[in-house]
Hints:
alpha+beta; 4-stranded antiparallel sheet; 6-stranded antiparallel sheet; globular
Amino acid sequence: MADELASxxxxxxxxxxxxxxxxxxxxxxxQLENVLGLxxxxxxxxxxxxxxxxxxxxxxxxxxxxALRVHLDQExxxxxxxxxxxRTAMSGAIESRRKLPAQRRLLPVLAVTGGVAVVIAGxxxxxxxxxxxxxxxxxxxxxxxxVTAMVPSPPANSPTATSSTTTSTVTPSLPSAxxxxxxxxxxxxxxxxxxxxxxxxxxxxxxxxxFEHGDHDVRLTxxxxxxxxxxxxxxxxxxxxxxxxxxxxxxxxxxQAVGMDGNSxxxxxxxxxxxVNNDRVKPVAAVAVSPGDAKPLRAExxxxxxxxxxxxxxxxxxxxxxxxxxxxxxxxxxxxAGR
Length: 339
């Protein structure tokens, strides 16, 4: 099946690229390099090339894996010959791994066994983060142990790590839409620490709106003070939408739910990304939302953040079928760092 093949390819390449980035030239798999070459050749358009480049740059990020998997699944279905080539290449890669010397096959087992022994001895193992920007991963819950085998944990800025990370700071309650915004909503030092401010109330460059804003639904659930952008598979200008906001002295951003609204085509899959300052390559948080789904999204804002950019993009573009809808950031707000 196409979906199973796409999942196997993405998972195998992610594991390989992660190991390769850690060990450098010491890790080289000719069969998987061949698989990667097939993808580079097939996904050669600017849009597809960017999709693949993001995955190869950040193979541990769950959102990049899911975006590539969804698109690869579609390509395999549309081109059976490509699917056959990919299946043959993957069979060679799997067979090559089976032929590894016994000593090399035992290494992962020995690593895990050693980790268990350390746990029994009462020693805690802290795994090195594989975040693409080099930041350390968030520490685990006190009293737990993290054991890393073949695949490292997602980096601290991935959607999976973002949604599961806990801190000692209590998450602020959602601000009330009936309350007036602060006199200076873009400055987190003008209000008390922990005060939530709706993203829709933040100032914008040249006071220019590119998103729509107001109360809106995500999969028929209403959210106050939302922002959204229309997307379409048959309009080049609607493959993605971007909105930037100006702010300072805020510590985090929270989005109650991201997804499509109730009037959207039910088969659309969309990626939601949050960037800070002038960076449009490495999001501080990202998540790919499957058709009919909705997810929360949260990100810490690094010190010195002066701009916040929200981007919504179609995961798969099929111009032969015109599909459209609104990508909604439901009740998004930022949290003041305080005076």
